[in-house]
Design brief:
By secondary structure, the protein is mostly helical. The protein has one domain. The chain is 76% helix and 4% strand. It is built from 15 helices and six strands. The strands form three sheets. Strands 1-2 form a two-stranded antiparallel sheet. A two-stranded antiparallel ribbon has the order 3-4.
Length: 334
Amino acid sequence: MNIDLTLVWALIIVVALFVYVVMDGFDLGIGILFPLFPVGHERDTAMNSIAPVWDGNETWLVLGGGGLLAAFPLAYGVILSALYAPIIAMLLALVFRGVAFEFRWRDPGHRRWWDIAFTGGSFVAALSQGIVLGALLQGIAVENRAYTGGWWDWLTPFSLMTGVSVAVAYALLGATWLILKAEGALQQQAQRLARWLGVGTLLAIVAVSAATPFLTGEYFDRWLGWPNILWVAPVPILVALASLAFVRALQKGHELTPFLLTLFIFLLCFVGLGVSVYPDVIPGAVTIWEAATDRSSQVFMLVGTALVMPMILGYTAWSYWVFRGKVDAEGYHA
């Protein structure tokens, strides 16, 4: 049986990016919400809830970006050329928030400034990721296998809208994580924030979803053309049902369910993204097969990935298991 390794590698990268979004999304979300928490116990508790896992979460970003470079070098070169500014802003923001995370504990005399840096780095990273997504969706100018656009082509009202949307969605993920991990006043505040952020996330999904079909005729046909609309209709219907279930879960005071439903909504958004762009890696310009490296390289990398990915999954699952349960300003407890 001749397996299409290009599809396999596309799936590996999509899975890595999805896992990164949902796992690093909640700690970026906590950073975005950080100024809303009272100084002292609440902020320390919020920070402790992500302290054991935040740096490991970014392993998946490395896997996704490295996989794109190795398996789809043409796409990597074009995307980096077109989106150099927001990608570098994202990476610098991730570095800056990491430094702030560590120094706020070790330099208490300047903790206020490290908290500001932690929030700023989290917001810029989330905003940049959303801008990259929006810029990809609206299209990248490619000619003769090279980027032919300008330095500021990525900056449009649509990309800014997707940037803000991702930041709001990450904040919701952070709030639901705190509902799961915190107790007392911080948990109650997270529940209140989750109600407003749930509304904001739903409005953001509606806005981006309403604008996307009008970016290109191909998007319009895939989402609103007949009979395609029948095949894609389950995606928005499931988003609506999950949103209703989310509201009911908050009303009933559930702790785990709001977080899981938020993850499910993120998954549905990824499915919608796949509906829009597949089989392209650069929408409207380059397919995954056109961007792929040769088969021998794909086989070589797949062997390494088959050895490394189980280890990543293993230590990730173990770390989340070890640090299960509630958390307070002093650390985790059962």
